[in-house]
């Protein structure tokens, strides 16, 4: 039972890596991204069911197409659990093995039921962002793809807003958070930033070439080291993001959802690794 799509092409000969997990499941892996989308076929099918119609998602996501045990290229042991829970557990093991974190699950028919069992399964170090049921008799590939995108976008938006709210509450209570250009840049320079949130703004500023201090204000003498070798920056934000990456901070560029919220609090903020001393012990 193959979807009658003109886009169908045998995925086993298409780009991607075919691998067999320790639990005997054959998988096709395509793309590299933090977000994984896992495709689970129904009864009487295999990962070939999906064709290559979803390969275009590989630009933003890591795609994992799974053969259930007993199907396709997976092992077919006589003594094994072939019930829903058994399938879900083996897929959970395979996802852990292939480092597929926070998967978006797409299941067809019985694959959808396995996906729901998997969503309820305790996936270590990951969580399922959502799932939906696709009806290939009623919906074409583009509809299903659009729904998958929508689910991922909703999750992204919710994560942005949650990050913003966390930064605000920590900042407002004088804890491990900063908002606004000056405080965030200072925290960054001092290596305190755990996660930086920034919306797509540009801001002129200056950099001290001696101690690397960054500021959204132009200066000729560094307020930190008093050095006079200073450079004007066309975009101090770009420099700040570079700095954040190189110091191992997480960078979250806020696109939608939290963009206006963040803008209302200075367009930039961060979760900090520790409470800045200047705020932990406010000077009288
Ligand atoms: Zn300096």
Question: What secondary-structure arrangement, pairings included, does this model have?
Answer:
Blueprint: E1 17-20, E2 26-30, E3 36-40, E4 62-66, H1 84-97, E5 104-108, H2 110-120, E6 130-134, H3 141-172, E7 177-179, H4 181-189, E8 193-199, E9 205-208, E10 214-215, E11 230-233, H5 236-246, E12 250-254, H6 259-263, E13 268-272, H7 277-280
Parallel strand pairs: 3-4, 3-5, 5-6, 8-12
Antiparallel strand pairs: 1-2, 2-4, 7-13, 8-13, 9-10, 9-11
Helix pairs in contact: 1-2
Bound molecules: zinc ion (ZN).
Structure write-up:
Strand 1 and strand 2 form a beta hairpin. The C terminus is likely disordered. Helix content is 30%, strand content 21%. It is elongated, with a radius of gyration of 24 Å. The strands form three sheets. It has a six-stranded mixed beta sheet, with helices on both faces. The protein is an alpha/beta fold and 284 residues long. The relative contact order is 0.11. The structure holds zinc ion. Zinc ion binds next to loops.
């Amino acid at each position: 039972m193959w979807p009658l799509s003109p886009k169908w092409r045998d995925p086993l000969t298409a780009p991607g890596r075919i691998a067999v997990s320790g639990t005997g499941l054959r998988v096709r892996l395509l793309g590299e991204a933090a977000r994984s989308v896992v495709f689970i076929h129904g009864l009487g099918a295999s990962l070939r069911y999906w064709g290559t119609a979803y390969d275009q998602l590989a630009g933003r996501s890591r795609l994992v197409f799974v053969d259930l045990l007993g199907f396709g290229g997976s092992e077919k042991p006589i003594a094994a659990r072939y019930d829903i829970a058994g399938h879900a557990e083996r897929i959970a093991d395979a996802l852990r093995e292939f480092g597929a974190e926070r998967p978006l699950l797409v299941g067809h028919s019985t694959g959808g039921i396995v996906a729901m069992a998997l969503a309820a399964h305790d996936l270590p170090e990951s969580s399922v962002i959502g799932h939906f049921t696709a009806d290939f008799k009623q919906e074409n590939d583009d509809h299903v793809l659009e729904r998958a995108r929508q689910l991922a976008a909703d999750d992204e938006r919710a994560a942005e807003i949650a990050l913003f709210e966390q930064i605000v509450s920590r900042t407002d209570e004088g804890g491990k958070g900063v908002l606004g250009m000056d405080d965030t840049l200072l925290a960054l320079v001092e290596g305190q930033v755990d996660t930086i949130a920034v919306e797509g703004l540009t801001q002129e500023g200056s950099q001290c070439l001696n101690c690397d201090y960054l500021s959204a204000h132009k200066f000729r003498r560094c307020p930190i080291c008093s050095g006079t070798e200073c450079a004007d920056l066309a975009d101090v934000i770009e420099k700040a993001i570079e700095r954040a990456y190189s110091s191992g901070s997480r960078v979250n560029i806020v696109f939608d959802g939290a963009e206006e919220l963040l803008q209302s609090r200075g367009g930039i903020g961060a979760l900090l690794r520790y409470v800045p001393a200047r705020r932990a012990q406010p000077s009288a």
